[in-house]
Design brief:
The chain is built from 5 helices and no strands. The relative contact order is 0.11. By secondary structure, the protein is mostly helical. The protein folds into 2 domains: 78 residues; 101 residues.
Length: 181
Amino acid sequence: MKIAFGKIATVALGIILGALVLFFDCLLYLQYQSKQVSTSSLVFQAILMNLTLIFVVCIPYFQKKMDANREASLMSFLQMPNREDSLTFPALTTFLGEQALGAFLGTSLMYVIKNVYPQIGAALTAILTFVLLMISLTIIVFSLVRFVMYFTKHSMWVYMFMALVSLSLSLSFFYLGVQFG
């Protein structure tokens, strides 16, 4: 029963996200028809949005592929801390360094959008932006998850507080990186 529900939920999520892609594409087409936004801006928006939503739709597929190959599982690659592990200075500085890397990629992302866009056009800029955004967000999210895992052994309130503080720190780093870009 659990497997059937999982498959149904995955298919339903795919249908919902597919409908969302079509909805946003229709909105962009309406903007194109009303001439509210430049064509190159619409091309950039459409490609970036479609790539992002298609990536989200494909996440369950990627997860199944990774789960099928247990030897190279994501958890072993990320070296997730055990429940008994204590927070150490190297773990804290690793978290901060990974957040700084994500912020640097946010800065690079803004540089690409501002400076490379006129030279390579909307379509290639959107693809490059998507790649940089996914790499940056992946580093930030995996780093955040690894850091928050150190607090799972504590009470729910400590865990929630540290999750909120670390998420705020992660978003602040990324925001600063984007602002400096």
